[in-house]
Design a protein that fits this description.
Layout: E1 17-21, H1 25-37, E2 41-45, H2 48-58, E3 62-66, H3 74-84, E4 89-93, H4 98-106, E5 111-114, H5 119-130, E6 143-145, E7 148-151, E8 156-159, E9 162-163, H6 168-179, E10 185-186, H7 187-194, H8 203-216, E11 226-229, E12 233-236, H9 246-250
Parallel strand pairs: 1-2, 1-3, 3-4, 4-5
Antiparallel strand pairs: 6-7, 7-8, 8-9, 10-12, 11-12
């Protein structure tokens, strides 16, 4: 039996608008009830095409999206939403295979929950995704790191003088890495520091690192800037390391 949603006055999330796209009326009703109780303004769409229409008209702050939808599949809906507005998306699915999670993340989903799920956990995931982590500024103004120039005020990163086209989460990740060069960071570290999550699917970090490499590396399959530290995580090397670290750098193959 699903526990009742929390009671009491709504929190400060009242103005944040959530669009729930799910063709299962029972799941949709429970999800909407819990989100409303948490203080969100919630709208619902029963299929992929209607969801896209409502997303275009309402421009929600976040979309809760079912993976399997009539008329238009959730993967396609996610890709179109991210391409048009880069709205955060949490994907729900009855499929719990790793490749299905990867498909959702590759489509741009910011988080992923397999059915059956706890509606309380979903509310926490929504709040976490909406709570964009602000990267630690190294100092005021533009920051140079090797071929990169980071301008937090302008929300811009340049590589060799050319602006990079990044999603909001890719910018957050690269800005954090620029602020922590030559430091081995685990995927757990990055998930907490960049996403603001104390828990979650670590493949979220892996997918975003791969996307970022495709935009900053001359050869993403042989990275020299965003390296893998085997058994630890990743290390951002905007400038060459001293010779003592050469072997580690050579081992920075794409994970």
């Amino acid at each position: 039996m699903t526990p009742p949603p929390p009671t009491g006055p709504p929190r400060a999330d009242t103005e944040r608008r959530i669009l729930v796209i799910d063709d299962d009326p029972t799941v949709s009703e429970i999800v909407c009830r819990y989100l409303v109780a948490a203080g969100f303004a919630v709208e619902q769409a029963p299929d992929g095409q209607a969801g896209l229409t409502q997303a275009a008209a309402q421009r929600p702050d976040l979309v809760v999206l079912d993976r399997m939808l009539p008329l238009l599949d959730g993967i396609e809906v996610c890709m179109r939403i991210k391409a048009a507005w880069d709205t955060p998306v949490i994907m729900l699915t009855a499929l719990d295979q790793e490749e299905d999670r990867i498909d959702g993340l590759e489509a741009g989903a910011d988080d992923y929950l397999a059915k059956p799920f706890s509606p309380r956990e979903l509310v926490l995931r929504v709040q976490s995704v909406l709570r964009r982590t602000v990267p630690e500024p190294v100092h005021d103004g533009a920051v140079d790191a090797g071929p990169f120039t980071l301008d937090l005020a302008a929300h811009e990163v340049r590589l060799n003088g050319d602006p990079l086209v990044l999603t909001a989460r890719e910018f957050d990740l690269l800005a954090y890495l620029i602020g922590h060069p030559h430091r081995a960071l685990s995927r757990e570290d990055l998930l907490k520091s960049v996403w603001g999550w104390d828990f979650g699917d670590l493949s979220t970090v892996t997918v975003h690192v791969r996307r970022l490499r495709e935009k900053i590396e001359a050869d993403p399959t042989q990275p020299t800037l965003l390296n893998t530290v085997w058994g630890v995580g990743y290390r951002f090397d905007p400038e060459p390391l001293v010779a003592a670290h050469a072997d580690d750098r050579d081992a920075g193959a794409r994970r």
